[in-house]
Amino acid sequence: MTGIDAAKIGRQVSRRLADAAAARRFDPAGVGWRLGRSTGPGRAELWVPYDRTAGVYGPQGSGKTLDLLTPALLGAPGAALVTLTKPDDLLLTIDARAEGGRPVAVLDPFGVTPGMPELVWDPVAGCVDSMLAERRAKAFTAGTVRGAVAGGIADDAARFYAAEGAKVLQAFFHAAALTGRTLHDVLQWVADPQHATAPEEILRAHPHAAPFWDGLLRGALHGDERTAGNTATTVQQAMSLFFQQPIRDRCVPGPGRPATDIAALIRQGGTVYLLGREDPYASAAPLMTAIAEHVLDTALGLAVTAPHGRLCPSFLACLDELPSTAPLPTLRTRFANERALGLSFIYAAQTWRQLVICYGEDEARALFGLTNNIVVFGGGKDGLFYRELSELIGTTRVTRTTYSIGRGGMGRSTAGEDVPILRPEEIRQLPERRALLVSENARPLIAALTRCIDGKSGQALLAAQDAARARVAAGRRQTASAAERTAQALARTQQIAPPPDRSPFSSTDRRPGQ
Ligand SMILES: Nc1ncnc2c1ncn2[C@@H]1O[C@H](COP(=O)(O)OP(=O)(O)OP(=O)(O)O)[C@@H](O)[C@H]1O
Ligand SMILES: [Mg+2]
Questions:
Q1: Does the CA dihedral 205-206-211-214 come out positive or negative?
Q2: Separation of alpha carbons 505 and 514, rounded Å
Q3: CA 470, 475, 477, 481 torsion: positive or negative?
């Protein structure tokens, strides 16, 4: 062997050793989230890369949150957006996500978790930009579609009025931002849109106003009387949460309460929690959808201006209970465009029908089709969905050999038969902590999942949840009870109202014969 050969081999060996060391150092948690383990031969570890989307379907209590979304969130090294409806799910992860001084902000319109760091947001901010005003208005009104569903059937009319309402709301946001007005002024216009003349005048006269928006506004509010009436109602529905003073005070900036710097929060690997609730009387969906879009747009803005043209580490959007929290109209396009920019998406829904109700059949199917990894729990009652999945998974060829004995002696015949790999009822009967995984062009498999509250790390999480609960209880003690508020209101009434005997509404005035 020549000296040159020895040096070459030496270099190759050291390169291989370096590669082996790098392989040993490789941490999959940096590039994806752990889904579970396959149950087939080999029991392979299953990881979902951050540039692949995932959709989780399972009935109440099946484990969507604790087996998949929470582990993914806890393992995400970068910033995250989380939508949820259960305060317990928030309290389970908030301390872990705040570790290392990472910022956390919670939008809690209903004040369920007092004492948690609040997300403060001004919906009018930035609406000088007409594109932003339009996006924001559309996000607000998109959240009304589900609330307008009648008889469990998605109402096309609701979608029409959401679009009409967006024209009005975008004009209001834009007009307010152009003239330094605030959300208070917007609400004044929203309370009686047809008689609000200021926005149209501003849009007509202001040199920076988007051209023709005054016409759009007039057309939406002063056309056919019934249509205009429904449009006005939709606008009011979209902004309804803000008509509650406590909710408005909690969510929007005020004296000593500056708006949360979302871009800074994302840069520091922080977490935005949007805590909604399923409530037919007070849906938080319009507000949550608008804020979720704003957070995602901010992350996207950071991604495109980042040195590598993508967010690194990835940003995780963990959209639990998607149909009832923030049914983002842009989700499908975001799936297609943004996963390559370091924005990762995982969503959960209890049933397929819920998605159809808020997105419509075509859009829901497109969303389903664009989701790289579909995870389905058993225990549901939607036979049609399970049947479709069974068909999607396909069949396998089974060879059957039949033996017969007759007068001519013994005979044997072989025939092939295609049988479903998984029958619909087998999907429904999947046990707890198991889920069907349909992943891109891979073979379907049953995944064994790890519940995040199991084991030692689970105990630590539950202890952190208890501590967070205690903080919430302390925060709640500081907020006035209903009885205290009633007493305060009555005291104020006595200060401002005339004595009862002089009041035109006092019972003495209405006594018959007087
Ligand atoms: N602290 C806890 N201790 C023990 N079990 C729990 C605890 N919290 C939840 N569970 C159980 O874990 C299971 C999975 O709960 P998980 O919240 O993940 O369900 P889910 O599919 O997200 O349901 P939902 O649609 O209602 O949000 C449920 O059966 C629930 O009863
Ligand atoms: Mg859940």
A1: negative
A2: 13
A3: negative
Query: Which pLDDT band, with edges at 50, 70 and 90, does 482 fall under?
Result: low
pLDDT in tens, 75-98: 999 999 999 999 999 999 999 999
Q: What is the pLDDT of residues 184-204, one digit of tens each?
A: 999 999 999 999 999 999 999
| Average pLDDT score over residue span 121-131 | 95
Distances in whole angstroms, Cα of residue 362 to Cα of each of 161, 207, 365, 418, 438 = 19, 41, 5, 30, 20
Name the residue among 348, 265, 359 with its Cα closest to residue 53. Answer: 348
153: DSSP letter: B
pLDDT digits (tens, 9 = 90+) for 388-408: 999 888 888 888 888 888 777
304, part of any domain: yes
Domain housing 406: 394-428
In DSSP terms, which residues pair with 436 in a beta bridge?
Answer: 376, 446
CA distance 392 to 372: 14
Report which ligand 1 atom has the smallest distance to the Cα of 62: 21
Average pLDDT on 269-281 reads 86
In this structure, which ligand is nearest to the CA of 433? 1
Ligand 1 atom at minimum distance from 465 CA: 1
- Count how many domains the chain has: 3
Ligand index nearest the alpha carbon of residue 63: 1
User: Which ligand is in closest contact with the Cα of 59?
Assistant: 1
Q: What are phi and psi of 119, to 5 degrees?
A: -95, 125
Q: What percent of the chain has pLDDT over 90?
A: 56
Looking at per-residue confidence, does 506 or 488 come out higher?
488
Around ion ligand 2, which residues have CB less than 5 A away?
64-65
Ligand 1 nearest-atom number relative to CA 67: 18
CATH number at 52 reads: 3.40.50.300
Looking at ligand 1, which residue's alpha carbon is closest to its atom 26?
60
Percentage, residues of the chain above pLDDT 70 = 90
Number of C-beta neighbours around residue 430 at 10 A: 20
User: In this structure, is residue 233 part of a structural domain?
Assistant: yes
| CA dihedral over 279, 71, 317, 378, signed as positive or negative | negative
- E strand or H helix at 23: helix 3-25
**Among candidate residues 205, 240, 275, the one where a domain is terminated:** 240
Is residue 496, in this structure, part of any structural domain at all?
A: no
User: If you measure from the C-alpha of residue 321 to the centroid of ligand 2, how many angstroms do you get, rounded to a whole number?
Assistant: 7
Query: Which tokens go with 125?
Result: 């901010």
**Distance between CA atoms of 1 and 501, rounded to whole angstroms?**
117
Residue 241: CB within 6 Å of ligand 1? no
Residue 508's pLDDT is what?
Answer: 47
Q: Say if 442 falls within a structural domain.
A: no
What pLDDT, on the 0 to 100 scale, is given for residue 499?
A: 58
Q: Is 453 in the pocket of ligand 1 (CB under 6 A)?
A: yes
pTM to 2 decimal places:
0.85
